[in-house]
Write a structure and sequence with these properties.
60 residues, alpha+beta, three-stranded antiparallel β-sheet, 2 helices, 3 strands, 27% strand, globular
């Protein structure tokens, strides 16, 4: 079974560059304290790295 990541948005995306806002949305996050589960792969890891100052990540 593939590993998954639980990604939680902890800071607002207001006032950020458009590409960072788009990355938050592409991860499936909609608001602060919203969590999503994503497959653990290099694409998702790269997206998380780009917005690491806005999210918390845990492996599940």
């Amino acid at each position: 079974m593939a590993k998954k990541l639980k990604i939680t948005q902890v800071r607002s995306a207001i006032g950020l560059a458009k590409d960072q806002k788009a990355t938050v949305r592409a991860l499936g996050l909609k608001r602060i304290n919203h969590s999503v589960e994503q497959e653990d792969n290099p694409v998702i890891r790269g997206m998380v790295f780009k917005v690491k100052h806005l999210v918390e990540v845990e492996e599940i």
